[in-house]
Amino acid sequence: MSKPLKLVIMSDLHLVPEGEVSNTLDTAARLHAAVDSVNRDHADADLCILAGDLADLGEADAYHRLRDIIALLSVDTHLMLGNHDDRPTFLAVMGADQADANGHVQKVIDIRGHRVILLDSSEPGLVEGVICPARLDWLAARLDEAMDRPVIVVLHHHVLPLSMPVDSIILRDGAALVDVLRRHPDIRQVIAGHVHITTTGVWRGIPFTTLAGGHYNVSVNLPGHAAPQDRLEGPGQYAVVLADQDSCVVHFENFLDRHPVIAPENFGRLRAARRGADA
Ligand SMILES: [Fe+2]
Question: Could you give the domains of the chain?
Answer without folding.
Answer: 5-274 (3.60.21.10)
